[in-house]
Amino acid sequence: MSDDARQLSPMPTDWNRALAVVAHPDDMEYGAAGAVAAWTDAGREVAYLLATRGEAGIDDMPPDEAAVVREREQIASAAVVGVEQVAFLDHPDGVLEYGLDLRRDIAAAIRRYRPELVVMTNHHDSWPGGGLNMADHRVAGQATLDAVRDAANRWVFRDLLTEGLQPWSGVRWVAVASSPKSTHAVDITAMFDRAVESLHCHRAYLQGLGQTEEDARRFLREIAVASGRRFGGVLATEFELISL
């Protein structure tokens, strides 16, 4: 059976706290925000951790200015889907490097938030249907996968213990949004308008791309419809679910 024909399974619901780790402002909004809205509406707690401030993402805006604008837009965007905790690691946008510093920062956040579910965006070389993924996404994803293990081992990044961050081995799943290897999905039919509104909060970024709000709505709907074809015909957000 081809990947396109394989039906998606419902995401687990027996958890209370999630941490989403992504490279840039807007990464969660291009596909996963609808699922976040469904989760927070059901009483689950979701926090966002961004490796960068997205300062290299707007061509006609200087990075120092863009960092402030995009941070503000991300906080507003997260609030639309019920996320109150948004943290930025301040690694450099566009040249994010895989390494111990990034792994340590993410592991520290996992110990601090103590999630059962970690959400991230696609770390594979390509997107569903083709098209090359960018380096920052791949790097952030791989570092997140490794940091989940790091967070559970007290003898890795021992300085975190002196900061009062005890090991956390409670992560049960990692959910990869926009993956070409998706296995699970969330019905976002009732949340779709909020998902669109969440992306619309990135006004400066969308303008920099030359996209209108209607372009953003159309893009999200096409993705949700395509995912829903493998999930009962509803509007859906899909994930590759990795069980730990």
Automatic annotation (TrEMBL):
<protein>
    <submittedName>
        <fullName>LmbE-like protein</fullName>
    </submittedName>
</protein>
<dbReference type="InterPro" id="IPR003737">
    <property type="entry name" value="GlcNAc_PI_deacetylase-related"/>
</dbReference>
<dbReference type="InterPro" id="IPR024078">
    <property type="entry name" value="LmbE-like_dom_sf"/>
</dbReference>
<keyword id="KW-0862">Zinc</keyword>
<dbReference type="GO" id="GO:0016811">
    <property type="term" value="F:hydrolase activity, acting on carbon-nitrogen (but not peptide) bonds, in linear amides"/>
</dbReference>
<dbReference type="GO" id="GO:0016137">
    <property type="term" value="P:glycoside metabolic process"/>
</dbReference>
<dbReference type="Pfam" id="PF02585">
    <property type="entry name" value="PIG-L"/>
</dbReference>
